[in-house]
């Protein structure tokens, strides 16, 4: 099946860009990586110099200097919204002429993964939210060469924190109190008025909840789908330059987690009538959003109707805090007009020989 590729809609003349804070790793041909590092990645020794142009994708052009929260003319001119040819030109003009990327951090798969069965670019379906174009490039982190024909999954919650396939178990919040919570000022029926049993635990926390949480659990522990919905989920195959592009919406948030998008990269498989089969998963990660963008999005409907307490990027227990290497997206949008659309991009450096399915983290 020919991968779907398109330039897709994006904001014209972006005025604001949030760059991930970790710069690409520069390697020299005269300084090969230590033996221990080569053994750790279980990859063949290769020279990175000849692959410099192929290495620079939409994720991080070497000419950019802006970090999260900064505005820079040079950053806008050589950003993730640049074309592959523009990014290549930026690499060619870099002082070293050699660019490579660290392995992108592995993270937990989370409880709401559904095996790839929707091969498509536009995963929005009928979900409301800020339009978002997500552009990813997948490269071999050691050779810096693009990985063609890799299957890239993404999945995330909607603007109010709901995951398709798990609508009854993923919480979110949209201004309506969860079922089972009585209106303010009316005591619940059946409230005990007597003395607790003498054998009750003495170390139980006061006011501890007794029901199931309304939000998604922050870590792993796969759950089986509860419904047939599949919005905000999809798979694309990388082109010969390693690129995929998705049309989606800016994710919302739910209890205990910052705003994020899940992703997996599969290699060695093939497309069948039943979907993508075979091969192995070489990367399981999450893509993260700078606080400035999330705060701006939170002022736009329907995000501004959410009653769920938000976890910040710094408070999140899964984001590794290491910028682009940890999945922090480069974001481009018009300042003060984020509701018109966002472009998010990143280069994923993976080890195609490794297996990382994210279920053991």
UniProtKB/TrEMBL annotation:
Top-rank taxon, per record: Bacteria
Record's compositionally biased regions (Low complexity): 13-37, 200-214
Biased composition (Pro residues): 179-199
Region annotated Disordered, chain positions: 1-48, 168-228
Composition skew (Polar residues), residue ranges: 1-10
Coiled coil: none
Domain Intradiol ring-cleavage dioxygenases intervals: 109-167
Keywords recorded for this protein, A-Z: Membrane, Transmembrane, Transmembrane helix
TM region(s), chain numbering: 45-66
Matching CDD domains: intradiol_dioxygenase_like
InterPro entries per UniProt: Intradiol_dOase_C, Intradiol_dOase_core, TAT_signal
Name of the featured protein: Protocatechuate 3,4-dioxygenase beta subunit
Taxonomy of the source species: Bacteria, Bacillati, Actinomycetota, Actinomycetes, Kitasatosporales
